[in-house]
Design brief:
Elements: H1 2-47
């Protein structure tokens, strides 16, 4: 019985770790995309090109 509880706890801990890891990867990718959008907008302003995000 205690082995079953241990295995269930290990599965849930592994699942929670995977969810947190995926969340961290998503946050990192959103930051990368945000930095890319900002640099693209700055490059457009520097060259005089209008960047319209509402297409």
């Amino acid at each position: 019985m205690s082995l079953t509880i241990l295995l269930v706890g290990a599965v849930f801990a592994s699942l929670a770790f995977g969810v947190l890891l995926a969340y961290g990867v998503c946050l990192a990718m959103f930051r990368v995309f945000h930095i890319h959008v900002q640099s693209t907008a700055r490059r457009g302003l520097a060259t005089g090109v209008s960047v319209n995000a509402n297409r």
